[in-house]
Amino acid sequence: MFWNNKLFLLELVKNNGYNLCLIPDNFKNDKEIVLIAIKNRASALEFASDKLKDNKEIVLEFIKQITKFFNFVNINALQYISDRLKNDSEVILEVIKSIHFLNPFNINDYLLNKDFFEHISNIIKNNKELFLKAIEYNSFILKIASDELKNNYNIVLKAVKCKGSALEYASKELQNNKKIVLQAVSNDGYALQFASIELQNDKEIVLIAINNDAISLQYTSEQLRNNREIVLIAVKQKAYTLRYASEELRNDKKIVLEAIKNDSSSLQYASEQLRNDKEIVLKAVKQKVYNLQYASEQLRNNKEIIIQIVKNNGLSLRFLSEQLRNDKEIVLIAVKNNGLALEFASEQLKNDIEIVIEAVKYESYTLEFTSYEFRNNKEIIIQVVKNNGLTLKYISEELKEDKEIIIEAIKNNGNSLKYLSKEIQNDREIVLIAVQNNSEALYYASDNLKNDKDIVLEAVKKKYYTLQNASCNLVNDINFIIDCIIINDELILRAIKNNNYAIECAKNQNQNQNQIINIFLKINFIINFNKNYELYILIHNLQHNFNIDNIILNELFLNNINYISKTKNFYDILNYILTNHLKVFIENNKKFIHHIVNNLEYIQLCQEHNIHIFNIDEVTNFNEYNFEDIKKEYEMIYSNKIILWYR
Length: 647
What we know:
The chain has 40 helices and two strands. By secondary structure, it is an all-alpha fold. It has a two-stranded parallel ribbon with strand order 1-2. Helix 12 packs parallel to helix 14 (178-187), helix 15 (203-212) runs parallel beside helix 16 and helix 35 runs parallel beside helix 38.
């Protein structure tokens, strides 16, 4: 019974257009059902009745939909259309429109759609009216036109207006037509390659082409590639077009300097004479060091010039002759500029202690470029690690066990602890020296030493956040946390800013007031700590025991507004704030006030404290221009009381 229910069948093909093949034949002739099926799956047209395959509306929808999936319509898709519609002008134009991006010049496009192009060609190649319409959608259609249409001025002009490179398919006669070629190069300078030899020598056409796309210089006549004005325009736009200039102009200093200014690598296209010019080469190398390889051999062996170059960029050592890469003065200057230049020094100088120490000062891994013998020489390595402890990573495994070297390395950089064995990372003396140099070295200590109070306190003393690397036992030890807070004051404000909870600790009357207040605070990242202590307990204790005029409390309140607004003890907290700490919330009240105004009990409490809260929009009836007057009026009515405004 379902198979005769149209509503059921509509839902079926809406879900999957291919379901059209399952439904009874009489419904395959139902226009509404077939349209919905095609909109879901275009190729469902295969299962429609012959009558609907000959329906223009259906077929146009099919072409529209199949284009969405495949971006083109080929002959395989057209096989489902009736023979009559395959030759219909409107259908053909819709197909051409759908493949507007295809270029028959591209062999892949052509082979993929060979049958399609031949089918289209047979229909429109001699139909001038249809061809003029088709060319609007794809100017490359000119390729399949008849010789007569390729020689038709209006058709070719229209094609090159759409796509300049369509000039390729115009007749020889029209490729020599100045107006058509001007139109083509105005659209696409690259089209100059398809102009006649005569017009490639036309200065007006060439200037337009080059201004549109400088690469077209390669298609100009030899005469115009020797034209200073034309070449200068080209190299200003695309420096590498210097390669297409005449030999004479590649020896023109002004033109070459202009090209280098645009792109220094164009030095490679300059004449041999100018690649030996000190000024030009220095400018090119200053922009990009690898341009040194394009300089003349004479300049690349000129020590005076090379010293200037390596002072500016040590990595230029890479492009020097073997002789200069073995020159200690030059290599030393290079590694002082960039330690990585050591990689390009001669094998002999890679093991020169003065050069290596200079190189590793800023780039520790340059030690990797030295020989194993060098990296296993204790006397040398001690000097190296004193300058950069991180070079410990690249020394021999044998020396990584040498305590003297290890201590010198971690004294320079505590983080070099990460390159040592598990056994050494458990050495208390070494780890203590490491965290004294760099608190973050605690991260690389053994689990055993992360539980050592003295070592962790040493780390926290300099950087509060290294507490996160301590053991769980220590971060759950309240007395230890108090020691951490006392030893690093920064922990206090960070705790308030980063955490919506605080802790209550036992009072100690012998401590000064600020120290007691400090003990009440807890940092955000303490792991697995009991968070049952809530902010209102802290406030309550502070209210009854201490003078709260303190920057720490200001930070505490301001950074915990969201939390205290939600607590069940909010009424008590609000009462405390209004009584003791109003200034903070008058200046920073937006979130807080919006919470208050939603509860009558809170509003009444504010009024008891001589604080009245008003909605700006309500009292001004949304007319802000009279707000100042109304504000003054309210201040007179509620004199000696505080007014807070919100909206």
